[in-house]
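User: What would this chain look like folded?
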Amino acid sequence: MIGTGTMFIVYLQHACGMFQIACYRIARTMTLETLRKNSFQNEYLIYKGLICAVDMHRKAMKFSNSTISRFKIMFALLIITGVICGSLNVFLIFQMTSFECDIEELSLRLIFMMYLLSYMFVGNYIAQEIMDHNNNVFVTVYNGQWYVAPLQIQKMILFLLQRGTKAFTMNIAGLFVGSLEGAATLFSTGLSFFTVLYSVRN
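Assistant: Here's the prediction, encoded as structure tokens.
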């Protein structure tokens, strides 16, 4: 489980790097001195730079979706199992602290619970990083001085800006969107199951 999680983190960090390359190419293409020069060769260089940036962005999105789609069944099972195990562990920890208990058993449960929470948080944090790097591409386009560019290039940049209105998310099997908000949802769902278990016990 740790090996698969580590490889997943490496894959998605690679995707973050690809998004950063797209940002760099856009920023480099849209420098003020490049946009102000009106020549056919300069327009060609701007087109070529933007095409390379868009291609890199498309490849990063495709790589991220491909990575998620290969692991989606495992992630769906991991999410369900993690929420159930977390709820049961919180319930057992609560029972152990309510009654006399073995300290070793309690510490083992607490360590497992911390491991489970950190695993869920790290997975969602990496998904949030992907979304933030994708949004950074469009922030770079917005912050560039595209309004100084020739009209044909402004139209191309407008196309890029319109693509930025559609959110790019890490959707896991259509059930869950990986993000920090998703991590909070998982934690609250686990606590909700704990309260159900506690109320059924009483």
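The mean pLDDT is 86. If you want, I can go into more detail on any region.
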